[in-house]
Amino acid sequence: MSETTRHRGRWTQDDRCGSPWHYLPVEVPPGTAGLRVDLDYDRSGAVLDLGCFGPSGFRGWSGGARSSFVITPGEATPGYLPGELEPGLWQVVLGLYRLPADGVEYSVTASVSTTRGRLHPVPPGPVPSPLSERPPRRELPARPGHRWLAGDLHTHTVHSDGDFTVAELARFAAAQGLDYLAVTDHNTTSHFAELKDAGARYGITLIPGQEVTTEDGHANALGDVGWIDFREPPDRWLDTTEQRGGLLSVNHPIGGHVSWIWPMERRPPLAEVWHWSWLDPHWTTPLAWWLAWDPTSVPVGGSDWHRPGADATPGTPTTWVECAGEGPGAVLDGLRAGRCTISARRDGPVLLRRDGEFVAVGADGTILAGPDGSRAVVRGDMAVFPAADGYHRLLDITGATLALTG
After folding, report:
1. Could you report the per-residue pLDDT of 311-338, keeping only the tens digit for each?
2. Overall fold of domain 2-113
3. Whole-model pTM?
4. How is the chain split into domains, by residue range?
5. Which of 3, 238, 342, 343 has its CA 20 to 30 A from that of 151?
6. Is the CATH number 3.40.50.1820 carried by domain 147-347?
7. What are 208's strand-pairing partners?
């Protein structure tokens, strides 16, 4: 047996100004084995985000990446959480992200079925084979019992608006020689369940993450902290992430129409100073934002990778973290302690702080630049300088930033 609920109407600029999110009720009767929702509207001039809440809370989000989803007890469309469909009033959520001046007509069709097997999400493709070989690890000088791990703190999969499955992304990142990767899909945690197995299969540490995504700015909640409600103000994101043992990072603060413009009473511990939107490494705009925002926030990097050919490759830039182990907790502990540094790429020059010294690795001929205007030529593959307060960079002879440490 199946039942269908239909909602039709027109969203206007008045609706959008009243609230970014609107809720359409769907009654789910006892014994429901599957829910399918389809959204239809003219995409030529509008973008509507799509999500779902059950009586007990969040069940999924796909933003503008999908126009339909299916939830069943055992499986769900990427971005949505499988599990029993509790009876009661469910809500289809529409985000009015972009509307033309005269608004847009829409229709939502929600079908529930009490017959198991009647509704299925699109099945995933085959799991890619393990890597036969990968680039050797790059060993950087570290404290006893520690190792510098190369990684990327900002990537996406099919669970939001990326093209790769979790397994495909893990394999691809491992093939770039990365040791860890944060998988940070937009406003969802549905990818969390796949991370441990995919990481083990391809020999890479996968860190749970959610890119909390709003029109006024994005932030990564890093760690297995559960779902963070993007409808709350950012100070709540920070409080909740910290209470659950994670770390919050402001993302791409100078990133065109997705730049960070939210006010906050407290500052998150991390700031994604280096992002692919730093289009020209001769610019100092991201550094200017960071210094004005809070120079005590630990600078990190992220590629914001979605698909081949559209974004920087994972590890561009590379965030190096000095870790006492190799699991997600060890990486988060290193970030929390500020034991990290950023390089433009995994195999490029790196600048480390170690025991009151700077160590420039693979940086022969570059320039060590300090915040007070000091400059020194780096000579040799591993050069040591007295450490000084404040951020320092490695520059090429044209003034382009090659590496950054806080």
Report:
1. 899 999 999 999 999 999 999 999 999 9
2. Jelly Rolls (2.60.120)
3. 0.96
4. 2-113, 147-347
5. 238
6. no
7. 183
